[in-house]
Design a protein that fits this description.
five-stranded antiparallel beta sheet, 51% helix, 17 strands, 20% strand, Beta-Lactamase, alpha+beta, Heat Shock Protein 90
Length: 607
């Protein structure tokens, strides 16, 4: 007991790095356990892959046996198809008088009976004539009268017959279907092929051979593995459309797999492998277009591997518990120290800068506590300095606010000047003052917000009117807004820099004849707003225009006005990559600036 206390005391006073090293030495068992689990996982996967490979080989063999089994029946169909006596009999039957037709019918049925007796599993052989009549011998009923197709008036409506006609000269194997016979229900698939008179091929098909075979023929090929009367693997066949051709429980033969249900779910629902962990393998027979499936109980096949896994995990769990104990003790020591430090931090958050943190151990947590106490003293001094600086900053802000002029004072003053000009009949001055007031009010009131294009165009006209008065009407300005575009929304002062640039730089030193034209249009797809600003001013040098068109170019702005690069940057900031522009200019002729941006309607946001 004393030795235990001594070890824990020694371990508690070790440096944090050593504690982690000791803990890591114990917890290294965990990576070993993980490695073992991974190894078992790999072994399990390899076993599963080998089982799947064996199942694939088995499915390939079943596919080959199915081909061989079907060859027997397809060969019989070929023999019937090329039997001259049957061909002659068909011709005689169609042309015979009523009193001789029955005899011809019996003779052909006799030939069909001979073919049917060559192998088992044949339920019925029929020859459907082009006129809709049939010559049929039903082996299940042992009758040439009662047969599978008795319910059909026109035998060309039979499914296998239609498929054979669609395929032409090819042989067709129809999927398994359920057919009621003598109060019961049987699963039967069909092999059909059109017949021709080889002496006169040009007259086309003379009929269709249909051989109906019991599904048990396919079921016999697909053997189901059993051990102690318990089924752990099954095989079954479907066609490309998902119709089940053969299943160990023949009740499910002839139905179609549901698209909203997996093959595993279907197999479990049939009850054969219910409650098992099912694995599925699939093999495609290219010749038949059929899919051969194998479903097996994964837990049963891999039961020995599972036992090894459980044993290994149990041993690993015991080792893990030992490692967790030591880790838990280490964490508890660290947690005790950190709680003391966190408590000190909480006191500081409450404003108590006189708090001191005490940690008994001499490891890194103790050093953190000492440094924390030192830092607290320094922070206290810095806070005092910040308070003094904050007081001085507040005083400076108050003085700045006191120095501001209320915009309403300017509006009211301009309004008074306007009325004075009207009283003195200085109407030109009154119009300038009124326009200036509108411009100021539009510019100052939420200048970074949006307004309609019509509102922006109205403001531009007032702005340009003041500029024309300033430059003695040395230029004319035309603003054209397409009606559909006028209802769109645009940032209020987005176009002002372009108009100012055209007036201040384009018309510099021009005394008269200047023309500035602004066209605002909506694109044909109603998704893009185009603004064309055209002037016949001095123009822009080619290299500068090229630099304007380069979004990545960097400019050094000069003067107090907002230059074009700044305006382009605002467009990119507002609209992102959906904004574009183009500057075309010829020195001495003029400039054309085309701006394109997304069409924004009321209530919409820019995406």
């Amino acid at each position: 007991m004393k030795a235990e206390k001594g070890f824990l005391h020694w371990f508690r006073n070790q440096k944090l790095g050593k504690k982690i090293m000791y803990t890591f030495a114990v917890t290294s068992i965990i990576p070993l356990l993980v490695a073992q689990v991974l190894m078992l996982y790999v072994i399990s996967n390899n076993m599963r892959e080998k089982v799947d490979d064996l199942m694939q080989i088995q499915l390939a063999q079943i596919s080959e046996r199915t081909d061989l089994a079907l060859d027997v029946y397809t060969n019989l169909v070929y023999q019937i198809y090329s039997d001259n006596e049957i061909i002659k009999g068909i011709d005689s039957y169609e042309n015979a008088q009523p009193e001789t037709r029955a005899r011809t019918y019996r003779e052909i049925c006799g030939r069909l009976q001979q073919y049917g007796s060559m192998t088992g599993g044949i339920e019925c052989i029929s020859i459907v004539l082009t006129g809709g009549q049939d010559i049929t011998y039903d082996f299940g009923m042992a009758s040439a009268v009662d047969n599978l197709w008795s319910v059909y008036q026109d035998k060309t409506d039979i499914g296998p017959c239609r498929l054979a006609q669609e395929e032409g000269s090819n042989m067709v194997i129809s999927p398994t279907e359920r057919i009621k016979r003598e109060g019961g229900e049987e699963r039967i698939f069909h092999i059909s092929k059109q017949m021709y008179d080889f002496k006169d091929i040009r007259k086309g098909a003379i009929g269709t051979v249909i051989m109906s075979v019991n599904e048990s023929v396919l079921n016999a090929v697909c053997s189901t593995a059993r051990e102690n009367e318990e089924v752990y693997t099954i095989n079954f066949i479907t066609d490309k459309d998902g119709t089940i051709l053969s299943y160990p429980n023949s009740f499910y033969s002839g139905i179609s797999l549901s698209e909203d249900r997996t093959v595993e779910e279907f197999v479990e629902r049939t009850g054969i492998l219910e409650g098992r962990t099912i694995a599925i393998n699939q093999y495609e027979n290219q010749n038949l277009g059929w899919y051969f499936y194998n479903a097996y109980d994964e837990n049963y096949v891999l039961r020995e591997v599972r036992s090894i896994q459980y044993l290994t995990l149990a041993i690993g769990a015991l080792l893990l518990l030992a490692a967790v104990f030591l880790i838990f003790y280490t964490v508890s020591l660290i947690e005790k120290s950190t709680k003391s430090i966190v408590a000190g931090i909480t006191e500081i958050q409450r404003g108590n800068l006189d708090v001191q943190v005490t940690v008994d151990s001499k490891d890194e947590m103790g050093q953190i506590a000492d440094n924390f106490n030192t830092m607290t003293g320094k922070v206290k001094g810095l806070i005092e300095e910040v308070k003094e600086v904050t007081v001085k900053q507040k005083e400076a802000e108050i003085r700045a606010l006191e120095a501001q002029i209320n915009p309403h004072f300017l509006y009211n003053t301009l309004d008074s000047i306007n009325w004075m000009a009207i009283e003195k009949e200085e109407y030109e001055i009154s119009r300038m003052v009124r326009n200036l007031g509108v411009i100021l009010r539009y510019s100052v009131d939420k200048s970074n917000k949006m307004a309609t294009v019509n509102e922006m165009a109205d403001w531009l006209e007032k702005y340009v009117s003041l500029q024309r008065m300033r430059f003695n009407d040395s230029f004319l300005c035309e603003i054209h807004v397409q009606p559909e575009a006028g209802r769109l929304w645009i940032y209020k002062l987005l176009l002002q820099p372009f108009i100012e640039n055209a007036i201040m730089h384009g018309f510099r030193e021009i005394k008269h004849g200047g023309i500035l034209r602004v066209d605002i249009l909506l694109s044909e797809n109603q998704e893009e707003l185009s603004i064309i600003i055209e002037d016949n001013g001095k123009g822009i040098p080619r290299e500068i225009a090229a630099k304007y068109n380069d979004p990545s170019a960097r400019w050094q702005e000069e003067g107090t006005s907002i230059g074009l690069p700044n305006a382009f940057s605002r467009m990119r900031m507002y609209y992102g990559d959906r904004a574009s522009w183009n500057v075309n200019s010829i020195e001495g002729v003029g400039s054309v600036i085309t701006l394109k941006m997304p069409a924004v309607r009321k209530g919409e946001t820019i995406r």
